[in-house]
Amino acid sequence: MTDKELMSILNTSANQEVFFGPQGFKQVATQDELNKAQLGFGISELGQAAASDDLSSEAKGCWQASWQVFARDTELGDPYFVDTNQTELPVYTGFLAEAGWEVEQVATSLVSYIACMQLLFNHGQQTQAQFFPDPNSVIDETILQQLQQQLIELSGCQHFWQLFMQCYLDWLIED
Fold this sequence. Notes:
The protein has 175 residues and is an alpha+beta fold. Helix content is 35%, strand content 21%.
């Protein structure tokens, strides 16, 4: 998968930023942004490889050379990335823990991830993350349950979207 092919898929997305309640996703929009997105992950600030090509169990927790960051969480800054070694380009997110990278699959393909982003945008239509619910916030439990099920079906990943929706529900309750 070349960067050009990856950008071609990413550019099918109607929105480079998607927010739903307090949570948001900011996707790269240009080749230059895609290159910069790897800094601190697969590439050091000096432009040197900072990832492992070792596929053995010893590399568990290490950033892999095949992981390409294309988006960030707007709240925490966690990366969203594809595994370019896999044809379908599964999407993951992760955070750096004491034992290395803790990775969670978000979608079975980049195309399904983009479909999830469109679904979230259609339900929230927010231009920024919200600190507090407002009259436009989705609060109907039935709609939220249906949205969660649609996200799970589109993405092929249950755990991530259950956690995502639980964070949204917690946000609604905290107000």
